Amino acid sequence: MGVLRWGLRVRRHIGGHDNEVKSVSWSQSGSLLATCSRDKAVWIWEVQPGNEHECVAVLQGHTQDVKMVQWHPVLNVLVSVSYDNTIRVWADDGDDDWHCVQTLAEAGNGGHSSTVWSVSFNQKGDRMVTCSDDCTLKIWDTSADLSQPTTGEGHESWRHLSTLSGHHGRTIFSAHWSSEDVIASGAGDDAICLYAEEKSTTVEGPLYRLILKKEKAHDMDVNCVRWCPQDPRVLASASDDGTVKLWELRGNLLD
User: Fold this and answer.
1) pTM (2 decimals)?
2) Which GO terms describe its cellular component (predicted)?
């Protein structure tokens, strides 16, 4: 039996940014690709026949490095987070004219007070989590109509729902929402934390609580955490210590 050999070949070089490209994200349909950079810009590319990629928008608005871009799981709505402490929501007006429909910041929105490193949506797409150099995670909720995939109308309705603080002692670099509604975070304190929504709600709305903290999950900073889409109880983590670890969530921690 022959040995199956794997390889990668470059299909296409896509240029445009003037500095380090920090993040890339495909839309749910695979027809749009978003990139962001230290040049403070977000670019949106549309996949064309013949493996061509046409730039359909260069989004300016952030005043510092853009750390991450993430497409909404249902809509053609893009979220970017930045060194300028803000979260920006981008959408088109139905005529491929992309613009910022909402900026979430500390003043007025209950946003972060320092660099925002990561953003992740829940499976339904009506909530997202962000994490920051301010050592907090923030949960955001939207009342937007998720049945309207091609218009930005109504998608400026994200509001602050909850702040999770006191669980990490250093910068939180990564947060990821599982399909079972467990949020994982990884930070510069070498720890991984897991959070879930309380079954009871207050007048202000639902609350989230820490359900597990793994101290010294790595020997150095935890840079990224990601839940497996096929098995939502398997978590991968990546660290400055040069290792990737796979974790299994055991027990019924959500009771």
Assistant:
1) 0.89
2) cytosolic [4Fe-4S] assembly targeting complex
